[in-house]
Design brief:
Layout: H1 5-21, H2 28-35, H3 39-51, E1 55-58, E2 64-67, H4 76-84, H5 100-123, H6 126-136
Antiparallel strand pairs: 1-2
Helix pairs in contact: 1-2, 1-3, 1-4, 1-6
């Protein structure tokens, strides 16, 4: 599994949103400025996150984004799947017509790697990340 720029930036943006929203709408431009990510690129990322039901948006001058659920209900796995799609090391369609050795490798190696990675990313919530981050940097800067 290789995480694309979209997945990496999306995870950063979601952590930023979780840290700075506190139930208030956060303008995309604020996230873009803090994370040094293009606003137009973040619009694409947040479109996918909104379609996946991970964020809510309000349009207009006072608009912005907020998490759709509590930070302890949103996992890294949910975010990455919304942005990356299938996270398997070897997509299943690559192993459909296989010989016995490839079938064995799929069952004993690729699937095991997937299970361990999925288990790991599905256990880590935004709340876990925020709490750990705040131990390192206890006072995030609020931008107005």
């Amino acid at each position: 599994m290789k995480v694309s720029t979209k997945g990496r930036y999306g995870l950063r943006a979601m952590i930023d949103l979780a840290l700075y929203s506190k139930n208030d709408l956060v303008p995309l431009v604020s996230i873009a400025d803090r994370q040094n990510i293009s606003k137009s690129y973040l619009e694409q990322v947040f479109s996918a996150l909104r379609k996946a039901g991970l964020v809510k948006s309000i349009k207009g001058a006072q608009g912005g984004y907020v998490l759709s659920s509590d930070s302890n209900e949103i996992t890294v796995g949910m975010i990455l799947r919304a942005l990356e799609g299938d996270l398997s090391v070897v997509p299943m369609e690559d192993t459909v017509n296989t010989n016995r050795i490839e079938s064995y490798i799929r069952d004993k190696i690729w699937n095991e790697i997937d299970e361990r990675v999925f288990s790991f990313i599905d256990e880590i919530t935004l709340k876990d990340i925020m709490e750990d981050y705040l131990k390192m940097d206890p006072a995030p800067m609020y931008y107005i």
